[in-house]
Amino acid sequence: MRMILPFAAAVLLAAPAVAADTPAEKPTQAQLKSAQETLSFIVSAINSKDVPVEMKNGLFGCLYENSLSKISTARDAVLAKNKGKVDLKNPTEQLVVIAEICGAPLPKAAADTPAAKPKGR
User: What pTM, to 2 d.p., does this model score?
Assistant: First the structure.
């Protein structure tokens, strides 16, 4: 019984610190949907065979270092500023937006690689 009391006391002492980290307002349904979409794009990219490892690492690091709400809010702001320029139904364009926000390295275009450049005679 003596072991339980110090543990319970430690939990009770830690509780106010944890409660202080919670946001003051509950997220709206739109914010939750945006966060879900953002996380879905990041997870899909990390699980994809077509996404380079450097980009996966950048996205994972971004998610580790930043809150999902911060990333999704930034994504929403970029999409709002570029209304009509980013195809919301194109997951690649959405991923590029998130990667740019996160500073994740983007894959080089095929034309940028030396092997893809046309060779002269």
Answer: 0.69
